[in-house]
Design goal:
- With 85 residues, the chain is mostly helical.
- It has one domain.
- Helices cover 85% and strands 0% of the residues.
- It is built from 3 helices and no strands.
- The chain is globular.
Length: 85
């Protein structure tokens, strides 16, 4: 049982590491600086998807968590941008 838990932990680490590399590639591939709204949306989507993967959700749940996280990140970026001006 302990060996199975160790394999699952390694799979989660690999999945999160892969997702982080994908998001880093998206960020690095932008030709102009990102706005605060875009940064918030990307960060929220990454956090939502990562939490969904770590929690062991199905593919649909992970995608849903990414969408909700992206929306909340966008809203948070909008509030931050509004208050900083």
């Amino acid at each position: 049982m302990l060996l199975l838990a160790e394999f699952q932990r390694q799979d989660i680490k690999r999945a999160v590491g892969s997702a982080n590399r994908v998001f880093a590639g998206l960020l690095a591939g932008c030709e102009q600086p990102l706005t605060t709204l875009q940064k918030g949306a990307i960060t929220g989507a990454a956090l939502g998807s990562g939490i969904g993967m770590i929690a062991g959700g199905s593919f649909g749940q992970v995608v849903g968590a990414g969408l909700v996280g992206g929306a909340l990140g966008y809203a948070g970026g909008a509030l931050y941008d509004k208050n900083s001006k």
